[in-house]
Amino acid sequence: MNILSIQSHVAFGHVGNASAVFPLQRLGCEVWPIHTVQFSNHTGYGAWKGRVFDGGMIGELLEGIAERGALPHCDGVLSGYMGGADIGEAILDAVGKVRAANPKARYCCDPVIGDVGRGVFVRPGIPEFMRARAVPAADIITPNQFELEYLAERTTATLADALKAVEIVHLLGPSVILVTSLHTDETPADAIDMLAAGPDGRFRLRTPKLDIAINGAGDAIAALFFFHRLATGSTAEALSRAASSIFGLLTRTVEAGSREILTVAAQDEFVTPSRVFTPEAV
């Protein structure tokens, strides 16, 4: 499998492509990373060095890949945080070129907008771009609960609310939706839910809630879910494999007391998770 991953990148730590690329490679996937930014570290530290690339840079790199005759062999495009609307347009242009070369290729968009408790943390105009342009172009999206509520324009206090929100967002375009970090009235205080919906059904998966707030986990689970959905064609199987791997990765990170997720040290979790969680149909 070949996946074009267009995301941010850091030299130190694991967010964006630095979180998504290696897990995919560990699973045997060939990844073509294009970086939208090159920073020293993620911005959660409060200070960083580096620069943001413009949309023209993305187009230039894609043109070079196309000149190698590679696009017909691209199975999917993955995108995450978008620093500006020009980056977003360049990503959608890349998706269009890949689909023209391989109509079977799929696009997975992690619609990074904000989070519960933090609100919107992307630049002005990006939330609107996600709802109006990126999400309708995607086959698969991986919003968190806050982003699902933004896209559906409704709250998700209950599981029924969340399922209705997913139905609304399906109408925007994506056929498969993974909702991460979902906490409804039915979720126990010591647990966290994920919800996945596709043509083959709707599924909830519950894991113990870990005492951790860390950057990069969302980037990793979007990549893993996309890979397993492409590989198996099963929404439930993709949810089980991705969630189990992320739980193992975060458990190892908590045990080590690390501020960065242990993407390399815990790499076996991507292939053979220590604990496998089974989703239930809802």
Automatic annotation (TrEMBL):
Keyword Transferase: yes
EC number: 2.7.1.35
Domain Pyridoxamine kinase/Phosphomethylpyrimidine kinase: 90-258
Molecular function terms, GO-annotated: pyridoxal kinase activity
Protein's name according to its UniProt entry: pyridoxal kinase
Pfam families (alphabetical): Phos_pyr_kin
Chain coiled-coil ranges: none
SUPFAM superfamilies: Ribokinase-like
Lineage: Bacteria, Pseudomonadati, Pseudomonadota, Alphaproteobacteria, Hyphomicrobiales
InterPro entries: PM/HMP-P_kinase-1, PyrdxlKinase, Ribokinase-like
Domain of life the protein comes from: Bacteria
Keywords: ATP-binding, Kinase, Nucleotide-binding, Transferase
Gene from which this protein is expressed: pdxY
